[in-house]
Design a protein that fits this description.
9-stranded mixed β-sheet, globular
Length: about 325
């Protein structure tokens, strides 16, 4: 496929390098011209200063958006109206209202909109899916997860710390990944209860959040995110009535990626435990790109970004009102 990338930072570069040999990166764009020109040289593509010029290029079939949250809606709508399929980084806009507008535009123009939740394509997550689908931990009854980092000097001055640019704080930043994984392993929740806090950072948006996603049959996920962990951290444990799976690390600064599978001892006592380590090259971006192209080929429309943003909005309302919110 012929591709254009808008946003040439860390993620834009990862997306560019994830394209297959059958794809062609035509042009790139970024408000930081240095970043865009560097990526253009690296990939043999064209640098364009105005993203609309890139979108209006009839040769381009897919637009990848890897910009700050406040830019996503405008770019996505322009791309979809111009007949482009869109892969947008999470979150899909600043809130569920924006994501709804984007989805409606995609449907109207018969184009694909997909939100990049790259964690689904990590090897430990894929392994966990196989274990669950095989019935090895039985029915999933509870998920417990933590995700976050400790911020960085000057973060209070970054765009993420201002609501008009970000739409929200850590819940909308990394919390969306935990919500998406909960949906993957346990299905869509029926109601939520949550709190958002400013525990350390003196900023407009939350630096931490804890929330419960309630599914049918009283199964649920208890999840927490924070810019207050003082180190990069990712942990998620999926409990079934026959065993459990613990996912630890994401590679890189989040530590080695591993999976611990515990098979319940029906007679009581210590479970049978197996450990899996994943130290190979990160292929998750390539796998997600392949998945995105398969959606286009099958014309299989997904509402993944909007679905998560609806849940995020419900958590914000729950925190403000101090009660459960039914979805």
């Amino acid at each position: 496929m012929n591709v254009g990338i808008i946003g040439c930072g860390l993620i834009g570069n990862k997306r560019a390098l994830s394209l297959s040999s059958k794809d062609k990166l035509i042009s790139v764009c970024d408000i930081d011209k240095k970043k865009a020109k560097t990526l253009a040289r690296k990939t043999g593509s064209i640098f364009q200063e105005n993203y609309k010029d890139l979108i209006n290029n009839n040769e381009i079939e897919v637009i990848i958006i890897s910009t700050p949250n406040y830019m996503i809606k405008e770019i996505a709508l322009n791309a979809l109206k111009n007949g482009k399929h869109v892969l947008s980084e999470k979150p899909l806009g600043k809130n569920y209202i924006e994501s709804s507008e984007i989805e409606e535009c995609a449907i109207k123009n018969n184009r694909m909109i997909y939100t990049g939740f790259n964690h689904r394509f990590h090897p430990s997550i894929i392994k966990a899916q196989k274990i669950i689908s095989n019935g090895d931990i039985g029915k999933v009854i509870h998920i417990h997860g933590n995700y976050g980092h400790g911020g960085r000097p000057g973060m209070e001055n970054e765009w993420r710390s201002f609501k008009k640019y970000s739409g929200g704080g850590e819940l909308l930043d990394q919390g969306v990944h935990l919500i998406d994984l909960s949906i993957l392993f346990q299905g869509d929740p029926e109601k939520v209860y949550g709190v958002t806090n400013n525990l350390v950072w003196d900023i407009e948006v939350e630096d931490s959040s804890s929330f419960i996603l309630f599914n049918k049959d009283n199964t649920h996920s208890l999840l927490s995110v924070g810019w207050v962990y003082w180190k990069n951290k990712f942990e998620m444990t999926i409990y079934g009535d026959l065993g459990y799976i613990s996912l630890i690390g994401l590679g890189g600064s989040y530590g080695p990626e591993k999976l611990i599978f515990g098979k319940r001892n029906i007679k009581g006592g210590k479970p049978d435990i197996r450990k899996f380590y994943f130290n190979n090259k990160d292929l998750s971006w390539k796998k997600e790109w392949k998945y995105f192209k398969s959606l286009i080929k099958k014309q299989s429309f997904t509402k993944n970004g909007h679905k998560v943003n609806v849940i995020v909005d419900a958590i914000y309302r729950s925190s403000k009102q101090g009660c459960e919110i039914r979805l």
